[in-house]
Amino acid sequence: MSNGTGKKVKNAAVLAVVAAMALMPLWGSAGIINIFILVFLYMAMGQMWNLLAGYAGLVSLGQQIFIGLGGYSVAVLCYSYDMPVYIGLMAAPVVCMVFALVISLPIFKMSGVFFTIGSWIVAEALMLFFTNWGFVRYGFGFAIAAGRGLGLNARYLIAFVLGIVSVAAVYLILRTKFGLGIMAMRDNEGVAEVRGVKTYRTKLVCFLISAFFTGLAGALMHLFDGYIQPYAAFSIDWTVYMVFMVIIGGIGTIEGPILGALIYVLLRQYLYQFPGVSLLIFGAIALVIILVAPKGVIGALRNKTGLELFPVRREMKPPRE
Description:
Blueprint: H1 3-22, H2 24-27, H3 30-55, H4 64-80, H5 85-107, H6 113-131, E1 142-143, H7 152-174, H8 177-187, H9 189-194, H10 199-225, E2 227-228, H11 230-233, H12 237-249, H13 255-271, H14 278-292, H15 296-305
Antiparallel strand pairs: 1-2
Helix pairs in contact: 3-7, 3-10, 3-12, 3-13, 4-5, 4-10, 5-10, 7-10, 8-10, 12-13, 12-15
């Protein structure tokens, strides 16, 4: 099979899967639809953590910042100000981007493990702030009734669009000259800066994009759950889940968070019957994957088969004679 034919077959297969997912409300049961709502929401979160850590080299332990802010934005607007749900969903990612812009200057002065710890400290500070803020009922939280008007199919389609758009956004970004700068910065920030990559601006754009999509996913997650409280909204568990998905799927690949989200959600459904040891099981699985396949499941398959569904490397055009 020629490269051109193989590429057409691969693209057709991807489109067929996307079409089947888009039409799931017509053929899927309620249980399957609920599972894939979670898959698409976690897929968006995983793609954004992977954009930061896997492609830009910014290992964050503070993505729960945007999960919590996104959730509280839609909750406050819909509960306290009686705004329509779509207003809350439009405002949530904007609030997250603005906050990301505010903290970017001090947090980008840190590098390596200091950036990682700094992002986590910001998240912990937000948890304490919301826990002691009377306007949001302290640590008790409150119900988000606005999401009850959304039917199961509407929830699925919203989550599906977010998941697909997050994948497409990362893919298109990485295929640009800016995307090359992101990966160059990850490989060697000093050399990338010498070669003309504006590292601060590159980090900032990645951080803002990640904040936008993660905040929207967090808003939808809490809207669909119907309840929010600071201990859960700003818990580091959110980032732990993202790290787990990306590691087992394949860090630095677009396919990795997709497969990782599916594996994580299915495992979580099964491990509900082991509440006391579920996190230990997740940790053990991640450890085994790291030892057996350091590049994740997708990385291992790519090494053996050479198959790449979403190639971000651009082919060199042969020189003209």
